[in-house]
Design goal:
Blueprint: H1 6-9, E1 25-28, H2 30-34, H3 44-56, E2 61-65, H4 71-83, E3 88-94, H5 97-107, E4 113-120, H6 123-130, H7 134-151, E5 155-160, H8 167-180, E6 184-186, H9 196-209, E7 217-221, H10 229-239, E8 243-246, H11 260-269, H12 285-296, H13 317-325, H14 353-362, H15 370-386, H16 392-405, E9 410-418, E10 427-434, E11 437-444, H17 448-459, E12 465-473, E13 482-490, E14 493-501, H18 504-523
Parallel strand pairs: 1-2, 1-8, 2-3, 3-4, 4-5, 5-6, 6-7, 7-8
Antiparallel strand pairs: 9-10, 10-11, 12-13, 13-14
Helix pairs in contact: 3-4, 3-12, 4-5, 5-7, 7-8, 8-9, 9-10, 12-16, 15-16, 17-18
Length: 533
Amino acid sequence: MTSQNSAVTGVDRSPVAIGDNHRVVIFDTTLRDGEQSPGASMNLEEKLRVAEGLEAMGVDVIEAGFPVASVGDFEAVKAIAERSKSSIICGLSRATKGDIARCAEAIAPAPRKRIHTFISTSPLHMQYKLQMAPEAVLERVKESVAYARTLVDDVEWSAEDGSRTEHDFLCRCVEAAIAAGASTINIPDTVGYALPDEYAALIKMVMERVPNADKAIFSVHCHNDLGLAVANSLAAVRAGARQIECTINGLGERAGNAAMEEIVMAIKTRADTMNFTTEIKTEAITKMSRMISTITGFAIQPNKAIVGANAFAHESGIHQDGMLKHAGTYEIMTPESIGLSRSTLVLGKHSGRAAFRQKLVELGYGDLGDNAVNDAFSRFKDLADMKKEVFDEDIAAIVDDTAVRANDRIKLVELDLRCGTANRPPHAKMTLEIDGVIESRDGTGDGPVDAIFKAIRDMVPHESVLELYQVSAVTKGTDAQAEVTVRLRENGKSVNGQGSDTDTMVASAKAYIHALNKLLVKREKTVPDGIAV
C-alpha cells in the first residue's frame, strides 16, 4: 500500500503509513477533551505552552481545541497552528458545515493540519440526543466528511458512543466515511463502558467487515469511567488500531481519558509482548505532567501510575532490601526514563544564576527565556533564604508557578495577616493588581483563610461558591512549601486554582486568585451541546 506519510508524499495526511503494523500514532487531546473536564480551563498563553511542550515531546497529532466553541477557542487553535512545526494540528467539529468551515479556518496556518468531525451513532444517542433517524445520520456522515475533505487533505471521523453502536450500522457509517475521504476512523468508548476483550473484538470486527478498511488508520478514544481506558486502548492496538487518543495525566470529562504517560510507558516497557513503537520522548513525561497539573490546578494523586509521587518510592523493608541489591527487583522502568533523574547539582542560598539555569536544564525545562528565568531565580533565592534544603520538587514548583502566573489578569502584590489566640477576629490586608491597577482591601473572617478570601472578594466581586480547599506539602520537613488547591463554582461551571509558597496563607491567596483568573477564562467559553467524543 502506498504510504500517506506527509514527509514522503508531501500530502498533509496521516503521520504513518496505512498498514504499518508497528508504529502507534499518539493523538493528544489535553487541550480539547482535557480542558472540558470540570474545573480545568486554560488561557491562551497556557495553551501555547502546553502545545509547545507536546510538540517537543514528539506527539504526532495535537487536538488544539474546538474552534466554534468561542472566539477564545478559535484564536487559541489558530495561534497554536501558526507556531506549530512538526505535529499535525487538529481541530474538532460537529457534523455541520458551519463547524467544519470554522475549524478549517482556525487550523489553516499549520504546516500539517487535520479536521476531526464526529456524530453520534448509538441508538440511545440518535434517538434522544440527535433526534435523528439512522439513515439521516448516515447521510450526515457522508456530507460532513466530504465537505471537510474539500478543505483539508487530512480528515478524521468519529462515531460518538461507538462502543454502544449496533455493529451493522457502525460498519455502514465507517465505510461511508472512508469513501467520502476520511483517512482516520475513530471508534470511541465515549462513556467508558467497554471491557478490553469486547472492545478489541469490536475494533477487529469493524476492520474485517468494512470493505475499504485498508484505506484508513483506525483510532481509539477511551474514557476511564470503569478505570479501563488504558487497558481498552492497548487491547484495541493489539487488535489492529494504530492511533490512540489520550491526555496528559488522564485529564478529561468525568473520570478522565486514557493517560498518555501510562500508554506510552506500557508500550515501551512491554515491548516483549507488544511489538509497537511511538515517537514520544519519554524523558519529557514528568515535566509535562507537572505543567498540566500546575496549569489546570488538578493535583496528581500520590499513587498515580508513572507520575505519582509514590511511583518510585519504596517503604517496605523487603522492597528496600531488594532495591539495594538490584533495582529491577521492584522497578520495571527507571525514574530516568520518564525524566525523573536525580541531579548531583545541589542548590542553596549561595548558588548563582548559572547553576540555577543548569538545574532547569537537568529538570527538563530547557530555555525558558530571560524574563521567566529571572523571575524564577528571584523566587528561588527568597526560598533558599528560608529553607535549609531546596529540593528539585521545590524548584519545579517555583518554575511552574511563575510561568502559570505570567499572564494572569489578577495578581497578588502583598498580604499582611494578623491571627492567633487573641480575642479578636483574624484580619487580612490584601493588595492586588487587577488588569494593571493596584487595589487594596482589608478583610476579617472566622479564620485567616476566610479573611483572605473575603478581602479578595471585595476587590473582585463574584458569585462563585468555594467547593474545595486542600493543602499538601511539596516536600518533606516543617519548612516545606505548601501547595494549595482551590475549586470555585459559578453558574454550573467549576474551576481549579493552585498556589505554592512556604507560607500556607500566601499559597492559599495565590490558589484563590489563580482560580479567579481561570473563572474569567471560563466565562468567555461556551461549549455547544453534544461535545463528548
